[in-house]
Design goal:
alpha+beta, HIT family, subunit A, five-stranded antiparallel β-sheet, 4 helices, 5 strands, binds zinc ion
Length: 139
């Protein structure tokens, strides 16, 4: 179940447009979202190209949410946000994934809905690498 045009399925350039793979989790991959208006923002993408949460078994879904939980814990430990927001959209992408968006009191979009891609904050390769190390150290 792979789609050759899907960044979550093929990695490479399609993924590099918006993210950097951090590592594999049990049934998913953890990806750093390049747009970092919200420090530590990540994506947990399911291992297969399935559109809906209802398309996988209870066991697979439980494992997926365990991965989301593990990633969220690492984000909390690494960046100490005041809240993590969760978003699962994919109207056009059709590959089950969840955005983990750390929010910080009195900072960008606090108290509101996070924008999908504000295109404001991008880091250097070194800064991305540091962030990835920090997340990995807390997984
Ligand atoms: Zn896919």
């Amino acid at each position: 179940m792979k789609d050759n045009n899907c960044g979550y399925c093929v990695g490479g350039e399609p993924l590099a447009k918006f993210g950097i793979k951090i590592c594999d989790l049990t049934v998913s991959q953890l990806i750093l979202f390049k747009e970092q208006s919200h420090k530590g923002r990540c994506i947990v993408a399911y291992k297969d190209h399935v559109s809906e949460i209802v398309d996988i078994s209870d066991e697979e879904r439980n494992a997926f949410f365990a991965d989301v939980n593990r990633a969220a814990k690492a984000i909390h430990k690494a960046f100490n946000p005041d809240k993590v927001n969760y978003g699962a959209y994919g109207d056009t992408g059709c590959h089950l994934h969840m955005h983990l968006c750390p929010k910080y009191k009195d900072e960008f979009e606090w108290g509101g809905v996070f924008e999908m891609n504000p295109q404001k904050v991008f880091l250097t390769d070194e800064e991305y690498a540091e962030m990835i190390e920090k997340i990995k150290a807390n997984l």
